[in-house]
Specification:
heterotrimer; A alpha/beta (420); B alpha+beta (481); C alpha+beta (113); A: 420 residues; FAD/NAD(P)-binding domain; Immunoglobulin-like; 3 domains; five-stranded parallel beta sheet; 35% strand; globular; B: 481 residues; alpha+beta; nine-stranded mixed beta sheet; eight-stranded mixed beta sheet; 23 strands; 23% strand
């Protein structure tokens, strides 16, 4: 293995692959992708359901097929990928230390680094669900790996907490493999999953979805034997007297994804408390010059198509950084109204040209609303929306001409239009 | 099973049984330990605060006071020999009122009477306290600083003690639930529910919560009750909060909820104290809420959002509220260690020495083995190596280059090592306690399936037979297709 | 009879209304796929089935039907999938079984060497 590379990409999932291909096509060919699993593709390898690629390829691909297209493109360009390699640390000077079974622990120096580590699932522990700790409690993604990659069924009678997409997908998947899914409980008044997944994963199989409900007790000594589910009030506190008991041997948690940013943090990169990912400029450059971030390590996307799009931005600008040098920061902050959970990018660097696409999520379900991007009194962009839900990411495109002469902080707002 | 005969049989693989077994393995005695669960350290030694108490809590003249102070002094050396993480992080008893400040004076006096050096127990002013602990509640009025207070990982200590004893010839029988102890010629026959039986001249009952039931098998009446405590564990990112152990001023009901660093730099909050009949630890919403409430009273900005897990432990106690360490009234050569509540962990090394030298010695000659090896390689040995040393290990065994648990950074080599080392890990939780694989922020979400595969390979069993914690705790119900 | 549907063709999840008995009128869709989906949904609902096949060597291969199959036949399709045990190598796009339901075929979604 060489000691230096122009570009090191941490993660060979959809984000890392798309960033690598984009950087290569912009003229940087000395690239190394470090992938912790034994093959590229990331979490897509276990997402065997279809629905990927509708935006990008105008067809409905399965996860492995979507990944396969990028793996083939990277292979065409002979972009090296070191599989089975876990990155241990990244320094602000862009020294990347990693471990694998061929090279041991080694450090490589990069001119630029792209962070593409993806995200992880929130666990039961983060929720403090009371009860015992028997076998049979899994995050939806762990169950997905057991079923789809290893070929084992984790349980036969299932209750799912959280209506995130992976939970919904696993409800269908386990049903098709012979399990009975008794309930999906969601503490919020709305599902965080895509509407079509409610339709085709729950309704198709008559699996009940209990909104405003949570699991208040897990029972069983060796293996799960049952759960208690309660309705919650507006403060998310269980309401006494609403308890329902389900006999089950398995509980799946699909209660949210968290960008995996321990390496980012250790590199001294500023993180956003909202996204739990790095604070980035529109070129996806972090607070450290030459370190970029993209994909689910930056913000949890619901569509891989958006991951690819974002990663191409990171790849392109990482290549520019390597070929043309550092672009000084001349930053304009981006804020948002209270009914929006977060906006990305959080900062606009005025020294970078081009259109800016803002990604954001609303904090509740809104009907007939309008999104506006303003800088001081100037309206940069507006977009009407019939329905906006927290489970679906929104985007706004501000053309280059509008963003070029912005001098005041940018704010993104959501206003509900009356009488429509 | 053959009629196996031992000099000493220890019942219960907790920290008391474990340290006794390890002490006895220094002598020319044949010793064994029986444990009803699939792994050692499955009871109260698994889920407690992990505090090495200084020794000012217990009443003067009590066994607790005696063994606590002695055990506190012995712990660093024992931890060093066994490769167990121990830290003299010091502890603070925080007073929030004038009355509590007065109690601190009493604790200080009692501590000195129990044998702690006065200079190791200063009382701090509010200003001194807040300078040491900036995140403590500003309403604090002062604190007692215990300079000899420490922390240790209770299951690491127990596993290492039993492992070291086994390395020195002791035998371990797991899934051995004792149901009968019968007098036979020259000793006792101890029988398990599954029909296995062992013979021994001396029997030591360290069965924790079940010690009362074991005592009843030889006709002794030692009531033992369970008190459950819920804990919340915070991610290492919360470690800025404190590196010490923060106690509230004790009341008649006990030491209450603490906020403490662990040796692995997590923050532990808890425990509650709820009387329970069941021996299956189970957290409740009310107890978890109480832990959070009290933690906020100690540190108002405690980052509860950094919680990575919550769990409960059940502590055994007896109404005497002192350790019971005594010979059976009816069966000579049977010793009961019951009601070993806090500070039992701290006291364990001292209790073990006492049991061997004062009790076992009444029946058996204690002759030191010439080839006793007190050291045990730490389960965490790989992490403590330099990069060069690690690379040498990886070159010899590439499994050490394959990362399995990304949160805690545990390699395949370390997991296989845990299965191949005494006491062997035979389930996923056992691997977790030895290696920390699955103990980080994702709680095994990513690595559990790989750990299960490695266990299946190492144990030569199909995946669907691998358990979380023995018994029927299978992780998978079967193959598909 | 009016029927309200959520379109599953893409993440937009359009709320579609289908009116009529013999001649169906579709409203609320924002693309032609939505109209096809809605008409199928009230006459003969169809779904793409995705699953896995266990190869002879034990490894798992992701598979899908290359077009939607009748929803009523989904479990029958799964049974056919579960009975298949092809040998590696398999390549993405390989047809593993023709006519798994009507004209639909089962195709491999990954390369396994």
């Amino acid at each position: 293995m060489k000691n230096t590379y122009d570009l090191i990409i941490v993660g060979g999932g959809p984000a890392g692959l798309a960033a690598a291909i984009a950087a290569y096509d912009c003229g940087v060919t000395d690239i190394l992708i470090l992938e912790r699993e034994d093959r590229p593709g990331g979490i897509l390898n276990q997402c065997i359901h279809n629905g990927f690629g509708l935006t990008r390829f105008k067809e409905s691909l399965t996860g492995p097929e979507y990944a396969g297209r990028f793996i083939a493109e990277a292979a065409k360009r002979n972009i090296p990928l070191s599989a089975g390699t876990t990155v241990l640390s990244i320094s602000p000077k862009k020294e990347v230390t990693a471990i694998n079974d061929r090279d041991g622990i080694f450090t490589v120096q990069a001119k630029a680094v792209i962070l593409a580590m993806g995200c992880r699932e929130r666990s039961r522990g983060a929720l403090n669900i009371p009860g015992t700790r028997p076998a049979g409690i899994y995050s939806a993604g762990t169950a997905q790996k057991y079923v789809n990659c290893k070929g084992y069924l984790p349980g036969k009678d299932v209750v799912i907490l959280g209506s995130g997409d992976i939970g919904l997908i696993m409800a269908r998947r386990m049903t098709l493999e012979g399990a009975k899914v008794h309930a999906v409980c969601e503490i919020m008044p709305y599902s965080s999953g895509l509407r079509r997944n409610i339709e085709q994963c729950l309704h198709d199989f008559n699996i009940p979805l209990y909104l405003n409900h949570t699991i208040t007790k897990i029972e069983g000594k060796d293996r799960v034997t049952g759960v208690v589910v309660s309705e919650v009030d507006e403060q998310k506190k269980p309401i006494a007297g609403t308890e329902m008991h389900f006999d089950c041997d398995t509980v799946l948690f699909s209660v949210g994804l968290i960008p995996e940013n321990e390496l980012t943090q250790e590199a001294g990169i500023a993180l956003s408390p909202r996204t739990k990912g790095a604070i980035v400029r529109q070129n996806r450059e972090t607070s450290v010059h030459g370190i970029f971030a993209c994909g689910n390590v930056l913000q949890v996307h619901d569509l891989v198509d958006f991951v690819s799009e974002e990663s191409e931005i990171a790849g392109k600008y990482a290549a520019e950084y390597i070929l043309k040098g550092e672009v000084p920061f001349d930053d304009i902050p981006v804020s948002h109204s209270g009914n929006i959970n977060y906006v990305l990018p959080q900062v606009i660097n005025r020294n970078i040209g081009g259109n800016v696409k803002f990604f954001f999520r609303v904090s509740n379900t809104f009907r007939n609303c309008v999104f506006r991007v303003r800088s001081g009194n100037k309206l940069l962009c507006e977009k009407k929306k019939r329905i906006a839900v927290p489970g679906e990411m929104e985007t706004l495109l501000v053309p280059a001409a509008k963003i070029a002469d912005v001098t005041e902080p940018i704010e993104i707002t959501l206003e509900v239009q009356p009488n429509e | 099973m053959k009629n196996l005969r031992y000099d000493v049989l220890v019942i219960g693989g907790g920290v008391i049984g474990g340290t006794i077994l390890r002490k006895l393995s220094q002598y020319n005695l044949s010793v064994c330990l029986v444990e009803k669960e699939n792994d050692v350290c499955m009871g109260q030694s698994r889920a407690n605060s992990g505090i090495v108490h200084a020794g000012f809590d217990a009443a003067e003249g009590s066994l607790k006071a005696k063994f606590n102070v002695l055990g506190n002094r012995m712990m660093p050396a024992l931890a060093g020999e066994l490769g167990v993480k121990y830290r003299n992080n010091t502890s603070l008893v925080v007073a929030f009122s004038e009355e509590e400040l007065e109690i601190l004076q009493k604790l200080q006096k009692r501590g000195v009477a129990n044998g702690i050096a006065a200079e190791d127990l200063p009382i701090l002013t509010r200003e001194e306290l807040l300078a040491l602990e900036p995140y403590i509640h500003p309403a604090a009025k002062g604190a007692l600083l215990a300079k000899t207070g420490g922390i240790i990982c209770p299951y690491e200590l127990t596993i290492a003690a039993i492992g070291n004893a086994m390395d020195n010839g002791a035998k371990l029988y797991t899934d051995f639930a004792v149901c009968a102890i019968c007098k036979t010629e020259g000793g006792y026959t101890v029988t398990a529910e599954d029909g296995r039986s062992l013979q021994a001249s001396v029997v030591i009952n360290c069965a924790g919560l079940a010690s009362g039931k074991i005592a009843a098998l030889v006709g002794d009446d030692i009531p033992v009750h369970g008190r459950k405590g819920d804990y919340i564990l915070l991610d290492r990112q919360a470690h800025y909060l404190t590196d010490r152990t923060l106690f509230f001023t004790p009341t008649a009901k006990g030491k209450g909820i603490l906020v403490s660093s662990t040796v692995d730099n997590n923050i532990i909050l808890g425990p509650t104290a709820t009387e329970v009949e069941s021996d299956v630890p189970e957290t409740t919403a009310a107890d978890l809420a109480h832990v959070m409430q009290k933690a906020k009273e100690m540190c108002p900005n405690v980052p509860l959002g950094a919680a990575i897990t919550s769990f409960a432990g059940i502590r055994a106690y007896n109404e005497r509220h002192d350790f019971i360490i005594e010979e059976s009234q009816t069966a000579k050569g049977v010793f009961h260690l019951a009601g070993i509540e806090s500070p039992g962990l701290t006291s364990a090394p001292a209790i073990a020495e006492y049991v061997a030298e004062e009790l076992v010695a009444r029946y058996l000659p204690l002759v030191k083995k010439e080839n006793f090896r007190p050291e045990r390689q730490a389960d965490s040995f790989f992490r403590n190596l330099t990069t060069e040393e690690k690379n040498a290990v990886i070159q010899k065994d590439p499994a050490y280059g394959r990362m399995v648990c990304r949160c805690e950074r545990i390699t395949e080599g370390e997991i296989r090592h845990a299965v191949r080392t005494n006491p062997p890990a035979t389930n996923v939780d056992a691997v977790k306690r030895r290696t920390r694989a699955g103990m980080g922020r994702c709680q095994g979400g990513f690595c559990q399936s790989r750990v299960t595969e490695i266990l299946a390979e190492e144990l030569g069993i199909p995946m669907e037979k691998v358990t979380k914690s023995g018994g029927n705790s299978v992780l998978l119900v079967g193959k598909i297709k | 009879m009016n029927r309200e549907l959520t379109c599953i063709e893409c993440p937009m999840g359009c709320l579609i209304t289908v009116e009529g008995e013999d001649t169906l009128t579709v409203r609320g869709n924002r693309c032609p796929r939505g109209a096809i989906y809605a008409k199928n949904e009230v006459t003969c609902p169809r779904r793409v089935v995705t699953s896995t096949v266990r190869l002879q060597d034990g490894r798992m291969l992701p598979v899908k039907t290359n077009q939607p199959v009748r929803k009523s036949e989904m479990f029958a399709v799964i049974e056919k999938i579960n009975a298949l045990h092809p040998a590696a190598p398999v390549h993405c796009g390989d047809i593993l079984l023709y006519n798994i339901d009507e004209d639909a075929a089962l195709v491999a979604c990954d390369n396994i060497e």
